[in-house]
Amino acid sequence: MNPTIQRIRVWDLPTRLFHWLLVLCVIGAFVTVKAGVLWMDWHVRFGLAALALLAFRIVWGLLGPRYARFSHFVKGPVAVMRYLHEPQEHGVGHNPLGGWSVVTMLVLLTFQAVSGLFTTDDVLTSGPLAYLNSEWTATLTNLHKLNEWVLIVMVAVHVAAVLAYQARGRRLIGAMIHGDALLDSPAPVRPAADTWRVRVIALVLITLFGLGAAWLTTFGASGDALDFM
């Protein structure tokens, strides 16, 4: 290996698990809602799990290891334009453009999960908070359905971008599996903290958010549905 090439830990285990579990939840929620009413129980479970995961990621973006933090990869418009002009100069973690795509995906998915708490089909399935305000319920139900198509487009763009980077030799998929990246730099680069202490903190957080998402189902008249997508 070239002596200037370093193998460093970029993505900590909690961040990687979040990513792939969210992928599973989004696919599961989409497939089960399209499969019909008999699959709505599983649709509910995927939606609740996604809600807990997204809440975790928002907190992890504030308190987690350096490359998972929003402060590391959310840059201003000048940095984004500079990257678009000279993309080869990007270092470790999300590039400035990719950072904003991550934020956009998180916002859209969070809106989808939260709005699902208030949606109803007026037949069998209602979110646990749909009873709070009928006017808001109707509005959020419509926005929830509209946002599904926005998410489909965003996910397609995200997958296409990842595949394009893969074709150019940037092994993004592998890095999100094993956590490491190769960096061509003579100067040492600080790796992400991925210790057992970090992982235990993440486990405590996701457990709390999971319990919170489950607690939401105790609200409402029926208390049995969370329409995620």
TrEMBL record:
It comes from the Bacteria. The chain crosses the membrane at residues 20-40, 46-63, 97-118, 149-167, 200-221. The keyword Membrane applies. It is a multi-pass membrane protein. Residues 10-179 form the Cytochrome b561 bacterial/Ni-hydrogenase domain. Keywords: Cell membrane, Membrane, Transmembrane, Transmembrane helix. The keyword Hydrolase does not apply. It is found in: Cell membrane. Pfam families: Ni_hydr_CYTB. InterPro entries: Cyt_b561_bac/Ni-Hgenase, Di-haem_cyt_TM, Hydrogenase_cytochrome. PANTHER family: BLL0597 PROTEIN, NI/FE-HYDROGENASE 1 B-TYPE CYTOCHROME SUBUNIT. This is Cytochrome b/b6 domain-containing protein.
